[in-house]
User: Fold this.
Amino acid sequence: MEKEEKEITLNSKELIDQLCYLCSNRGFKKPKPLPKFNIKEALFIRDLIFQRPKDLVFFYLMDHIRHQTEIGKMGLFNARGFRLYRFLAGFVENMGNCTKAAIYAGYSPRSAKQQGHRALKRIQSYFRN
Assistant:
């Protein structure tokens, strides 16, 4: 008979206490040198811990892809996923024009209207959950 695992949850203060404990614990193996964070990364971690917005990670990745940083250049996405993120960036930049966003994402100008509509429906389905 399998034992049911209890789900352990921590509030923000308990999480920070655990992180402080791990930093001071000599038995916990820490990388040397300790990682450094720029202000944007620190604000992201702050928001993730204290506000825990549902779509924060999604928008963080979008920002990296948009500005072509190291994370944005990593192979996190297949071609279809990357095109979808490019579509979203183009959609925001073109103030809601699906056709222009689809062309920006790399779809054929002949099929851009249909592909833009499909991509927008797919993105909207992510936000419904």
